[in-house]
Amino acid sequence: MVTIAEIDTFIVDIPTIRPHVLAMATMHHQSIVLVRMRDSDGLEGIGEGTTIGGLSYGEESPEGIKLAIDSCIAPVLRTCDPTRVGAAMAKVTQSVFGNHIAKCAVETALLDLAGKRLGVPVSELIGGGRVRDSLPVAWTLASGDTARDIEEAERVLDLRRHNIFKLKIGKRSVRDDVSHVAAIKKAVGDRGSGRVDVNQNWDEAQADLGMRLLQDAGVDLVEQPVARHAHASMARLSAKHIVPLMADEALHGPCDAFAIAACSGARIFAVKIAQSGGLLPAHAVATIAHAGGVGLYGGTMLEGGVGTAASAHLCATLPTLAWGTELFGPLLLTQDILAEPLRYADFELAVPTGPGLGVALDEDRVAFHRRDRTAPTLHVVAERA
Questions:
Q1: Residue 61 in contact with residue 22, Cβ under 8 Å?
Q2: How far apart, in whole angstroms, are the C-alpha atoms of residue 367 and residue 385?
Q3: Whole-prediction pTM value?
Q4: Measured in whole angstroms, how far is the alpha carbon of residue 176 from the centre of its chain?
Q5: What is the distance between the alpha carbons of residues 249 and 265, in angstroms, rounded to a whole number?
Q6: Could you tell me if residue 293 is left (phi over 0), alpha (psi between -120 and 50 degrees) or otherwise beta?
């Protein structure tokens, strides 16, 4: 039997290209948990577990993800056959409750291993296999400054990189946020789709007002306006407003997807592999949405290249993806940790075609950004005249 010989888990910290302003936090860097897994045949698989803004967003932090993998998940995996991904993850699930992002990281590494062993992309190992080779990709405008956001939108439109824009709101008053959104939507016009993400920061009354005003401003969807557990509020808002409500933080796997679809709590699901607990549970979320007539959108946790590639493989298997994706995470970082960056062009992301995830790490950059690195940092000092 093939066994897992080595599991290495480590955190890399990479600055963002600008402050990324969310309702609950402002990000100046992203902390990415990487998993490197080697089997007894010498094959290597990589995975990523990433969250947004640490514990201000959800229950898992980068440090907690690493601890859960090292202390609880890795000992279980060492008793498993890595060629049987489903059986290995079932054993992990029996032993470890919750910890969806940690589970996603190790499942991704197992799928990368399996794809490399079979010589096929990960997308051919999920559902019925790949149905598309590229994905529409949104860009998030989250500087917090209206003029800067407009300038940023114009730049990426000119580059033909993005024509879908998601605006992060929820820190200001409802009317101030809507004014900010309306100004950007007016500047972009019909050249791009405008969406907003409130990150749970409104109560139902605020959301009622906000969704009405945002609809008048030409916004195409409103993401998670109220708390993730407020399914009844989500259902009332969905029934009342023409602009669709998209569930995000409310979705933590297939059980949540079923509950929200059953109560008509959202008309769109943001499918995230990390929140779902992996690519296979995320595919189950998408299947429930499809059966319930709920639209699909490929969500992000602002992953780096490894997690973004994994998400792209999942999204490439979905028969319908009416609302596109937001798999722009690597573009928000000052450094790409992949040996060959993912390809963004003509408003889309090309899904990797190589075996496994189809990506490899840039070992020098990873070593430089590792939180636990011991090598000294060298500073260039100008010579005195």
A1: no
A2: 35
A3: 0.94
A4: 28
A5: 13
A6: left
- CA–CA dist 265, 260 (Å, integer): 5
With cut-offs at 50, 70 and 90, classify the pLDDT of residue 31.
very high
pLDDT grade, residue 374 (50/70/90)?
Answer: low
DSSP per-residue codes, 136-183? EB-EEE-SS-HHHHHHHHHHHHHTTS--EEEEE--SS-HHHHHHHHHH
Task: Kindly tell me the sign of the dihedral angle through the C-alpha atoms of 46, 73, 312, 120.
Answer: positive
- Listed in sequence order, the DSSP H helices in the chain are 62-68, 74-77, 85-95, 100-118, 146-158, 174-188, 204-216, 231-240, 254-262, 273-276, 279-291, 305-315, 363-369
> What's the token pair of residue 79?
């008793």
> 16-25, 55-64, 283-292 — which is least confidently predicted?
16-25
Q: Which of 116, 166, 168, 185 is catalytic?
A: 168
DSSP secondary structure letters along 1-38: ---EEEEEEEEEEEEEEEEEE-SS-EEEEEEEEEEEEE
Q: pLDDT averaged over the chain?
A: 95
Number of C-beta neighbours around residue 379 at 10 A: 5
> Tokens 């969500």 correspond to what residue?
299
Question: Does residue 168 carry a catalytic annotation?
Answer: yes
* Residue whose entry in the numeric block shows the structure tokens 């679809």: 261
Q: Residue 196: left (phi > 0), alpha (psi -120 to 50), or beta? A: beta
CA gyration radius, the chain: 21
Spell out the domains of the chain, with CATH numbers in brackets.
Answer: 4-118 (3.30.390.10), 125-359 (3.20.20.120)
CA distance 216 to 212: 7
Per-residue pLDDT tens digits for 137-187: 999 999 889 999 999 999 999 999 999 999 999 999 999 999 999 999 999
Is 220 in contact with 184 (CB distance < 8 Å)?
Answer: no
